[in-house]
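Hi, here's the filled form for the chain we discussed.

Project: internal
Contact: R.S.
Residues: 106
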Amino acid sequence: MGLAFIVLGLVLLAFHVWGEAWMRRKALQIADALSEAHRPLPADIRDAWAATAYAVGFRSGLLLSQGVVISAVFLITGVRLRFGGRKDRLLIQQFDLARNGPSEHP
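And the returned structure, exactly as it came back:
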């Protein structure tokens, strides 16, 4: 189960980083298309472009930070599930050996 959480965390992190790069690339393509127009843009389109760029950047940042937090939770949980219980199992095994003797455990 721990290994599945680790893999899921890494996949989510990669997906959110890819999504952020994709949104940035699309926003830059739109900006390039608007800048290549040979006629001057009306003032309302320029103002709308600034608001759109802000909204795309804000959404991209929120999604990226959300993805990083969720991925970190999955990674930490996966590492704890996969490697965290060893200390407890070894302590219980040592306690059982000290209490009952080595004849009962191989």
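Let me know if anything looks off before we file it.
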